[in-house]
Design brief:
heterodimer; A: alpha/beta; 3-stranded mixed β-sheet; 38% helix; B: mainly alpha; Histone, subunit A; 3 helices; 2 strands
Chain lengths: 486, 95
């Protein structure tokens, strides 16, 4: 049962071969046994989960079930969920019990009837690529417990990889769904900006943040995205589009598909040879499936990391100004004036990486630097988006590595922010342009998973999921599980 | 360019983050590393390129000026560090 995909689990529930309470108990038991070492979950509340499962069972019995009713999943701790502690991986919110539900939470639990197994660990305020900036400690990669699971959705990735949950939610501002999916042998999708509501999803960089599914297969991601996506009047950047069934084209043949290979992703020595070898083999597999490869160019892609580290911190410095010890979260114990209360609260509540990014953001937005940094970064953002538009004139999807390396060791990059930032070199441009991107398992290098990145044009989620699904039918990489999680 | 210790302290003040001398020195060194990366942008001539603030080129949606939410003040203030009679309490700012 623990290896099953969402469709099989839903079918077993619908046929009453298992109840949601039994299934939820099965995963809660595994969490109780394996989580103390892996640290994928920061909050587990069996009483709440089982209550949700019992409600789902009643709904199934009443014949009112949706396609995923009763299926348990894990939620990244960036989503506000009423009555659940919602920490965003920070000391600042360690005591915050949310009084309301994020739209994603309401849709998944309220409408679809999914059951929450708990809240997963993450880099503090989603700022990190290794899950090491969490106030609640690092997460171990189930494939090698001396290594990171990636970040910022590292807890969600480790939970699914270790079979503590069949699927999970993530969020992706610069690669935070795709990079941990790559490092943990999962399938993860960052949708087009505006497809999934950001209401109640704690903001990091509002023009880049987007939530999406993390699971073992493209089919599971499609099913989960059906439950997550949709217009939300409560998010001013949510797009008013007709609802889509993301599973509708999964089986469509790939004959005639044009795959764009960006010259800049394949040239030079930036990518580990074992990663590149697995990606090259995936291209050959796609050719066997009827696709043809064409070379494309993203000439400004090398500027994506510099531009991102202006834009994302600038937006973060504004978004995180709300954490001031007044309305919620941590407040310092000792202070005199109001200003001192703010400054001590924020010094105590935020960790080093979050402070670093707030300071960068404050600096680039300050008088005299705005044009040279912030506006220049926004102009480069335009060049990057234009590069993608030009590339999509000659191809249907863009393919390349997700991450330049496999999972690195815990602590290996923790002292060098720039090295850490460069682990998102292939994913960041996609967020700047607002495009949908996926990572799917495509093999192993020295026993560690390698992720293949697929990038689509705006609103091409259904096509991307189809391209991923056909590959997964022809290969078995996504079905590989780490040893020692049974 | 490089960021001076005074600039680090000034920015920390603007961001309302208390910082001591040794933290400021460590921050100065890490920020200078990050700005070396960011400076790569300056080599590009972007004259005439329209800044892109957002991924979707759409106008901000408007809604009717009508009450849409219930009053949940008590629930929202229950999570505040200090609240009383519907007010958030902070140190005195006016003598």
């Amino acid at each position: 049962m623990i290896e099953s995909g969402l469709r099989e689990l839903a079918a077993a529930l619908a046929a009453r071969r298992i109840s949601s309470v039994e299934l939820t108990t099965l995963f809660l038991d595994r969490i109780g046994r394996l989580n103390p070492d892996i640290n994928a979950f920061v909050t587990v509340d069996p009483e709440k989960s089982l209550k949700m499962a019992a409600a789902a069972d009643a709904r199934i019995a009443a014949g009112a079930a949706g396609p995923l009713t009763g299926v348990p999943i894990a939620q990244k701790d960036i989503f506000c969920a009423e009555g659940w502690t919602t920490t965003c991986g920070s000391r600042m919110l360690a005591n915050f019990v949310s009084p309301y539900d994020a739209t994603v939470i309401r849709k998944m639990h309220g409408e679809a009837g999914l059951v929450s197994l708990g809240k997963t660990n993450m880099d503090e305020f989603a700022m990190g690529s290794s899950n090491e900036t969490s106030f609640f400690g690092p997460v171990k990669n189930p494939w090698d417990r001396t290594r990171v699971p990636g970040g910022s959705s590292g807890g969600s990735a480790a939970a699914v990889a270790a079979h503590l949950a069949p699927a999970a939610t993530g969020t992706d501002t610069g690669g935070s769904i795709r990079q941990p999916a790559a490092l943990c042998n999962l399938t993860g999708l960052k949708p087009t900006y505006g497809v999934v509501s950001r209401y109640g999803m704690i903001a990091f960089a509002s023009s880049l943040d987007q939530a999406g599914p993390m699971a073992r297969s493209a089919e599971d991601c499609a099913l989960l995205l059906n439950a997550m996506a949709g217009f939300d009047p409560r998010d001013s950047t949510s797009l008013e589009r007709p609802a889509e069934d993301y599973t509708s084209d999964l089986d469509k043949p790939l004959a005639g598909l044009r795959i764009g290979l960006p010259r800049e992703f394949f040239a030079g020595s930036g990518c580990a040879p074992g990663v590149m070898a697995a990606v090259q083999e995936a291209i050959r597999e796609y050719e066997r499936l009827g696709a043809s490869a064409v070379e494309v160019s993203l000439p400004n892609s090398h500027l994506s990391v510099p531009a991102y580290y202006v834009i994302a911190p600038a937006e973060a410095s504004s978004n995180l100004s709300r954490f001031d010890g007044v309305r919620y979260g941590h407040r310092a114990a000792d202070y005199g004036s109001l200003d001192e209360m703010y400054a001590r609260t924020r010094a105590e509540g935020f960790g080093a990486e979050v402070k670093r990014r707030i300071l960068i953001g404050t600096y680039v937005l300050s008088h005299g630097y705005y044009d040279a940094y912030y506006l220049q970064a926004q102009r480069i953002r335009r060049l990057i988006a234009d590069d993608f538009a030009a590339a999509f004139r000659s191809c249907d999807v863009i393919l390349g590595p997700t991450s330049p390396s496999t999972a690195f060791r815990l602590g290996e990059k923790a002292a060098d922010p720039v090295q850490m930032y460069l682990s998102d070199i292939y994913t960041i441009a996609v967020n700047l342009a607002g495009l949908p991107g996926m990572s799917i398992p495509c093999g192993f290098a020295d026993g560690l998973p390698v992720g293949l990145q697929l990038i689509g044009n705006y609103f091409a989620e259904t096509r991307l999921l189809n391209v991923a699904h056909r590959y997964q039918q022809a290969t078995g990489w996504h079905r590989q599980a780490p040893a020692g999680v049974a | 360019m490089s960021i001076s210790l005074e600039q680090v302290q000034r920015v920390a003040h603007l961001a309302r983050i208390a910082i001591n001398e040794s933290e400021a020195l460590a921050t100065q060194s890490s920020l200078n590393g990050i700005f070396t990366l960011i400076e790569q942008m300056q080599a590009v001539d972007t004259t005439g390129v329209e800044p892109m603030a957002h991924a979707q080129d759409v106008a901000q949606r408007l809604r009717e000026d009508a009450v849409s939410e219930a009053d949940r003040r008590a629930a929202f203030q229950a999570v505040a560090p200090e609240a009383e009679a519907g007010l958030y309490l902070v140190p005195k700012v006016i003598e």
